[in-house]
Amino acid sequence: MDIRSSTATQGYLLGRSAASPAPDTGTSSVGSVAKSFEDTLRNGEETARASMFGQADPHALVQALAQTELAVETAVAVRDKVVEAYQEILRMPV
């Protein structure tokens, strides 16, 4: 796999969009965030698969795995905050 600056920039933008909404949009739909998360995971899996067959260089593999790790950690943090908010709502007196 040939690593170019445009590929690196695209990977960075995918990782960034999975971690936080784009600053210019203000709000983003859950569907677009989920799609971005899915794309990041798929890119990591494809790069890992290509690396196993010797078709990707180690730098691209490390970059894809770092992006995937960031996306998963962000999803877990969001999930934890949602569960915490739900539990706080359950504790409120009715």
From TrEMBL:
Gene Ontology biological process: bacterial-type flagellum-dependent cell motility
| A GO cellular component annotation in the UniProt record | bacterial-type flagellum basal body
Keyword line: Bacterial flagellum, Cell projection, Cilium, Flagellum
Query: What are the boundaries of the region Disordered?
Result: 13-41
Localisation per UniProt entry: Bacterial flagellum basal body
- Primary location class: other
Q: Which InterPro entries match?
A: FliE (IPR001624)
The terms under GO molecular function for this entry are: cytoskeletal motor activity; structural molecule activity
Record keyword Transcription present: no
Please give the superkingdom of this protein's source: Bacteria
Which family does the similarity line name? Belongs to the FliE family.
User: What name does this protein carry?
Assistant: Flagellar hook-basal body protein FliE
